[in-house]
Amino acid sequence: MLVPERHKKIVQIINDKKNVRVNELSKLFAVTEETIRRDLEKLEAKNKLQRTHGGAVAMDDSDDDEIPFNDRQVLNRNEKMDVAKVAVSYIDDQDIIFLDASTTALYLAKLLPNMELTVLTNSLLVASELASRSKIQVIMTGGTLSKTSLSLVGPTAVRSIEHFYVDKVFFSCKGFHKDWGISDSNEQQANVKREMIKMSEQVILLLDFSKINQKSFAYIEDKSVLDCLIVDQRADVDYLQTIVDERTKIIVG
C-alpha cells in the first residue's frame, strides 16, 4: 500500500472510531509502530487528527468534553471576578503575557486598563475585548477554531506559542488535585495551556473554589510549576498550603 493511501485510510478510521492506538494501526497496516507515529505526525501537521499519548483522536471530536463558553461564564461568576480583580494587580506596564481561553481570563481582560502591554491569547473573546485598548498589543495564536470555547486549538496553535517567550501566563483549569496536579476537560486546550506554561517566566493559576480536589480528563502540568495561585474567599487555603510547592505563593481574592 502506498503512503498516501495509508494516510487516507488512517484518517477514515480515526474519524469513524474517534480514537485509535498506534499498535492497532501497526497491526492493521503491517508496518512498524515507528512508521505509524511518523504517519500521525504528518497528518497532525495537516490538521487531520490530534495526536495523543500512544495514539490519536479525531479533530471533529475535540470539543465533546467542553462545556459551552456561555454556560461556563455563569458558573461561579462572582468568585471568578474576585480572582480576576487580584490578578490585574500582578500585571505591570510593558509586560508580555499569555491569557488562555478560560472564562476567568476573559474577566481579567475586561478589567485590564489601557496600558502598555502585549497580550498573546488563543481566545477570540479575549482578543475582541482588548481590541479597543489602543495601548495593548494583541497577538493571536493560529489554529483550528473550537466553536464550543470560541478559541484556537490544535497543533498550529501549539507551534505558534513556541515562538514567544513571555513574562507571565494567567490561566485556569477544570481540576486541581493533590495527586493528579492541574488538569482540563479537553485535551486540545490542555496542550495549549501546557505550551503557554513552558514559554512563561512566571506561571499564575486563576482558581475558583469549585476546581479544588477535582481531576479532569486531560493532564496539564504538575502543581510544582506554579509561582502563584490566586483563589477566591471560598477556597480552603489551609488545605491548599499543604499540597502546593513551598515556593508557590497563594493569594486570596
Present the secondary structure layout:
Layout: H1 3-17, E1 19-21, H2 22-29, H3 33-45, E2 49-52, E3 55-58, H4 69-74, H5 77-88, E4 96-99, H6 103-111, E5 117-121, H7 124-130, E6 136-140, E7 144-146, E8 151-153, H8 155-161, E9 166-171, E10 175-177, E11 181-184, H9 187-198, E12 200-207, E13 218-221, E14 228-231, H10 237-243, E15 249-252
Parallel strand pairs: 4-5, 4-9, 5-6, 9-12, 12-14, 14-15
Antiparallel strand pairs: 1-3, 2-3, 7-8, 10-11, 11-13
Helix pairs in contact: 2-3, 5-6, 6-7
What is the name of the CATH topology of the largest domain? Answer: Rossmann fold
Return residue spans where pLDDT drops below 50 for at least 5 consecutive residues.
60-64
Spatial order of strands in the largest sheet: 6-5-4-9-12-14-15
What would the principal axes of the Cα set say about the shape? globular
Tally of helical runs: 10
Main sheet attributes: strand count, strand direction, barrel closure = 7 strands, parallel
CATH class of the largest domain: Alpha Beta
Proportion of strand residues: 25-35%
What is the residue-mean pLDDT, rounded to a whole number?
A: 91
Q: Roughly how many Å is the radius of gyration?
A: 19 Å
Order of helices and strands: HEHHEEHHEHEHEEEHEEEHEEEHE
Q: Give the proportion of residues in helices.
A: 25-40%
The class by helix and strand makeup works out as alpha/beta
Q: What's the CATH architecture of the largest domain?
A: 3-Layer(aba) Sandwich
Give the termini distance in whole angstroms.
60 Å
Tally of separate domains: 2
Total count of strands: 15
